[in-house]
């Protein structure tokens, strides 16, 4: 995909959704951090069902620490891997209180030193909580970047670096959300919705499922 096509791709995604954002519900960088940790191998919808009560009971790292492991689990037991996530969250809260004054650090290395926080989560926090032009590559973005030819790569780090080179600067801040939403709802893993895809003519995927045009479909049924 050349530079003109990449610009056209993001222009269309922006026109369709001028202010994209995460589907996770949160009211502070800390709450976003906890929601993102909880969302690993779980759906945003499932996380959003659990977090309102949790954040009401424990809106800060100190308050969450005070819940203790059993107390925290009561709020998140509907979410997959909740035992491990509870331990990681409490250790993260302890480090936030002891090393960062109860605040989420705006620093990649400090974020990645928190349990349950890898490069992808750090990118989400830096982007969505702090407005930095990072691009977190999850399974949806990895698939989309490779299928379309936008930023091919063998692993998530390769794709992240390729995206940072490929995405024009004016689109970099929101690229993560445009791509994740397009991958989640349009360019789905098993049956991508190519016939309704607004970037289909730019996409280089050789197995697009465009479906038969209506007239051809009717002619085929009559034959
Ligand atoms: S045309 Fe199909 S494969 Fe290409 S981005 Fe759109 S949905 Fe995905």
What's a quick, concise take on this entry?
The protein folds into 2 domains: 71 residues, Helix-hairpin-Helix base-excision DNA repair enzymes (C-terminal) (Endonuclease Iii, domain 2); 101 residues, Orthogonal Bundle (Endonuclease III, domain 1), CATH 1.10.340. It contains 11 helices and no strands. α1 crosses α10 and α3 packs across α4.
What does this structure look like?
The two termini are 39 Å apart. Helix 8 crosses helix 9 (156-166) and helix 8 crosses helix 10. Residues 213-223 have low confidence and may be disordered. The chain is built from eleven helices and no strands. The protein has helices at residues 3-16, 29-38, 44-57, 61-76, 82-100, 108-112, 119-129, 139-148, 156-166, 169-185, 214-222. It is mainly α. Helix content is 61%, strand content 0%.
């Amino acid at each position: 995909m050349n530079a003109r096509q990449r610009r056209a791709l993001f222009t269309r995604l922006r026109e369709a959704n001028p202010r994209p954002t995460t589907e996770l519900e949160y009211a502070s960088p800390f709450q976003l951090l906890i929601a993102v940790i909880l969302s690993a191998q779980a759906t945003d919808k499932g996380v959003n069902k659990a977090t309102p009560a949790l954040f009401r009971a424990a809106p800060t790292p100190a308050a969450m620490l005070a819940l203790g492991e059993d107390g925290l689990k009561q709020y998140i037991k509907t979410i997959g891997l909740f035992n491990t996530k509870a331990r990681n969250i409490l250790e993260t809260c302890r480090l936030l209180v002891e090393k960062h004054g109860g605040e989420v650090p705006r620093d990649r290395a400090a974020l990645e030193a928190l349990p349950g926080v890898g490069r992808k989560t750090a990118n989400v926090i830096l982007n969505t909580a702090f407005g930095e032009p990072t691009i977190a590559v999850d399974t949806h973005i990895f698939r989309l970047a490779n299928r379309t030819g936008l930023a091919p790569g063998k692993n998530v780090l390769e794709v992240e670096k390729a995206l940072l080179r490929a995405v024009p600067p004016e689109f970099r801040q929101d690229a993560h959300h445009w791509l994740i939403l397009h991958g989640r709802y349009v360019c789905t893993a098993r049956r991508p919705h190519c016939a309704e895809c607004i970037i289909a003519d730019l996409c280089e995927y050789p197995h697009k499922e465009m479906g038969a045009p209506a007239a051809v479909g009717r002619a085929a049924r009559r034959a």
